[in-house]
Amino acid sequence: MKIGLSACLYGKNVRYDGSNKKNEAILKLLEGHEIILICPELSAGFEIPHDPLEISKNKVFTCKGQDVTEKLEQGCLACLEKVKDCDLLILKQKSPSCGKGKIYDGSFSGKLMQGNGIFTKLCLKQGLKIFSEEEISDIKKEL
After folding, report:
1. Where are the beta strands (DSSP E) in 50-128?
2. Tens digits of residue pLDDT in 56-79
3. Domain boundaries in the chain?
4. What confidence score (pLDDT) does residue 109 get?
5. Which DSSP category does 122 fall into?
6. What are the start-end ranges of the E strands in 39-132?
7. What is the reported pTM?
8. d(Cα 116, Cα 48) in Å, to the nearest integer?
9. What CA–CA distance (Å, rounded) separates 100 from 90?
10. What are phi and psi of 47, to 5 degrees?
C-alpha cells in the first residue's frame, strides 16, 4: 500500500518548534509499505522553527496575529499533489494543517475544539481516507 504520513510522525524535525513527534508504533505498522512524507507547513515555506499557528474562524493565524491562511493553503495544495493516489493518510492530530477531529481553538491557550486542519479538510473533500496517529486500531484494519 501507498501511505501518506505526516513527516513529524516519521521523526523529521519539521514541527513549528523544530521538534518531531516520531511514533514508533505507526512506523512499525507501516513496515513494508510505500511511505510518502508530507508537511504542509514546510511545503508552504514556513521556516523551522516558526511561530505557532492555530485556526480561528476558518482562518490560520500565528500567535502574533498574522493571517497566514493563504500561505498555508498553498502548502496544502502542494502536499495534496504528493498524496492524491495514496491508499490512506496518517496525519498528526491537533495540527492546524493535519489535525483530524480535534484542533486547537485559536486562542493559543492549549484548548482543543472539534474540527479539522486545513490539509485534512482538503483531503476529505478529495475522498481520501484519513487517520490520526491516535487511531491505531482503525489503521491496522485498513492495512
Report:
1. 53-56, 59-62, 88-91, 102-104, 112-114
2. 999 999 999 999 999 999 999 999
3. 2-136
4. 97
5. H
6. 53-56, 59-62, 88-91, 102-104, 112-114, 130-132
7. 0.95
8. 23
9. 10
10. -75, 155
